[in-house]
Amino acid sequence: MPPNNPQPWRLEVSRLNRLTQQGAYRYNELLHESRSFLSRRFPTALWQGDPAQPTVALTFDDGPSQRDLGRILASLDAAGAVATFFFIGEKVPAAPQLVREVARAGHQIGLHGYRHRPFTSTRPELLRAELLLARTLIGRLCGWCPEQLRDVRPPYGMFSPATLRALDRWGYRAVMWSLVPFHWQISAPMAHGQIQRRLRSGSLIVLHEDMAHGPPVGDLLDTTLAHIRSAGLRTITIDEMWRSHPRAPSPLPLAV
Does any domain span residue 251? Predict the structure, then answer.
């Protein structure tokens, strides 16, 4: 390849980052193309689960939300489902009781940064300090060792190879996704259709709390849970998905 041409992975990362910002409706189709390449190029990130297992992971970004989280927890409890919540650190002090409820219900909590800002535009030393602050806040509220909070989803899904290397070096695991319905930008029927068409064994689904537009996330969750049941699938946490993933990194010993 001529030296002036960008490396293939740079083109794919650039395209994925651009599409994430644009919120393209065909994102799931284009993501499927990019993910197959990027998951091979960056196997230390979790992109989906084992398609041979009848399981899916439900995840929620941008919380904790005073408006949405109670409804989400009620729906999950009624369905006997588990989920993983990627919380924004600076939102945690305003909703301590909700954060504790998530932990008491047996759901997993991950990090979505301290602020909803691309990791790629944050200095490494600041990013490390902010992630430590976020995991410390949540750990204190839940009575957990902060090191238990090691799963991180970069805001907007934006990353670079340097980002992934840094997260790995600091003891975190990067989590992406395979299915996002963009429910805050499209109509309820379109969002429901995205879930129904794309749901399959190993899906790593991301929904969002605290969105000002689109169908209520609680309504979309109820429909999603119904699709999961009718497909004969069950929900697992991201930690469980890592353990069932053929390229899972070796777990680190954690104090509890």
Answer: no
User: What is the spatial distance between Cα 179 and Cα 110, in angstroms, rounded to a whole number?
Assistant: 18
- CA–CA dist 51, 45 (Å, integer): 16
**How many Å apart are CA 52 and CA 122, to the nearest integer?**
38
Structural domains of the chain, count: 1
Residue 250 lies in a domain: no
Burial of 245 (0-12, 13-18, 19+ CB in 10 A): middle
Q: What's the CA gap between 193 and 19, in Å, rounded?
A: 20
**pLDDT tens digits for 79-115?**
999 999 999 999 999 999 999 999 999 999 999 999 9
Count Cβ atoms within 10 A of the Cβ of residue 3 and give its class: 0-12 exposed, 13-18 middle, 19 or more buried: exposed
Q: What is the pTM of this model?
A: 0.84
Span 128-160, pLDDT tens digits: 999 999 999 999 999 999 999 999 999 998 999
